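QUALITY CONTROL LOG
STEP: pairwise intake check
CHECKER ROLE: data steward
CRITERIA: each record must contain a sequence immediately followed by its C-alpha cells, with no blank fields

ENTRY 1 OF 2
RESULT FIELD BELOW
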Amino acid sequence: FMALSLSVQVIAQDTATVKPASIALRLGMYDFKKTNNTDGLTKSVANYGFQYIQGWNKKVDFVANVNLSTFKYPYYTSLKVPKAYTDKDYVSLDFNLNYKFLTDEHPVVPYITAGMGVGIDRLTYYTAYAPMGAGLQIKANYGSYIFIQATHNAETSNLTKKHNSYSISYSLPIKGKDR
C-alpha cells in the first residue's frame, strides 16, 4: 500500500514552471476605425518595439510593451486637435497581464490579455487606452517563445481613438539556463 501511495504522489507532482524574465522584439500593426473627416490621416500603420515578460505564476505573466511608430494620428474631429499634415512620432507604453489557459510546458498556449496604456503623439498629445484581447504563445528553443496577439484598445481618455493592434514577437530569456 505504501509503494502505491508513493507512486501516486510522484505522478501527481506538479512540474509546471514559472516563465523567467525575458525580452522580446515585437512587430505589429495599428488599425484605426475610419470616421468622418479623417481623409488623409492614417488608418493602418506598422509599429515596432520591445517587450519585457515575467511570469508571476504558472498561469499569469506580466508584460510591458514599448512601441514606436510614425504616422498621422486620426483624432476625432470633434476634439479640435490640429490635423497632422506629415507623419509624426508616436510612442506607446502599456502594462498587461496575460492569463494562460495552459502552462508553459505545452507547445501552444492560448491566453487572454488586459491592461492599461498611454501613448504620446507629436510629443504634445497624450492618449490613454485599455488593451484587451487574446493571443497564442508558441514554444520555441531554449526558453524562447513566439507570441501572436490581437487586442482592442478601448478609449480611456478624450484624445484616444479606439483601435485594434495586431502583433507578433519573439522572446529570449534574460538569463540563460544554468549548466
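ENTRY 2 OF 2
RESULT FIELD BELOW
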Amino acid sequence: TCPFLKKHLPVLGEGETAHVLDLGAGKLAEARYMLQSNYHVVAVDNSIEFGLTPECQEYSSNLELVKVAFWDYQYPENHFDVVHARNSLPFCDPAEFKSVFEGIRRSLKKNGIFIGSFFSNCLSELDSRSSYLTLLEEDDIRMLFNGYSIKAFEGDNLPDQPFFDPIAWTTYYVLASKL
C-alpha cells in the first residue's frame, strides 16, 4: 500500500462510514487498505487482473467492482468522500483528461478529499510513449486544484514506476480537499 495513502487517508470514527472512488484499482491493494479502514469502496478498472481477490473477500459487502476504463466511468454528482487515483491518471489519454478530472471534481462532496499522483513530463517529445500519457509539470498540477485546498504536495524522482524503466520521472502526490 502506498505510504502517501496510509499517511493521509482520513481516519474514521467508530461506526462512521465514508465512500471512496478508487480509480485504476488494479489488484485492489489500496482498496483492501481502505476497506480495512471501514470505507465503502467503488473500485474502477478495466485491466485483466482486476477482480475480487481472496484478501478482499471478507469485505465484499463494502466493495463495488466496476470493470470499465475510468475515462468511461459515469461519475455520480456529489457522491464520494474520497477519490483515490494513484498511478492511474497519467495513463489517461490527454484528449480525455480534462473530462475525467471534471468528473472527479463533480463526484466529490464538498470537503471531499482527493488523494492521487501525477507524473512529470521527463520523456523526450520524440518518444512515442509520451503521446498517450498525461504528463504534467508541478505548476499545471497545482492549477488543476483551483477550488480545492491543497493539504499535501510531495514530489519524488525515484524510478518506482515499472512501466518504462529505466526512466526516472518525478511523481507528484497530492492530497486536496474540495472547497
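INTAKE CHECK: passed for both entries
DESCRIPTIVE NOTE, ENTRY 2: Helices lie at 3-8, 29-36, 94-107, 138-144.
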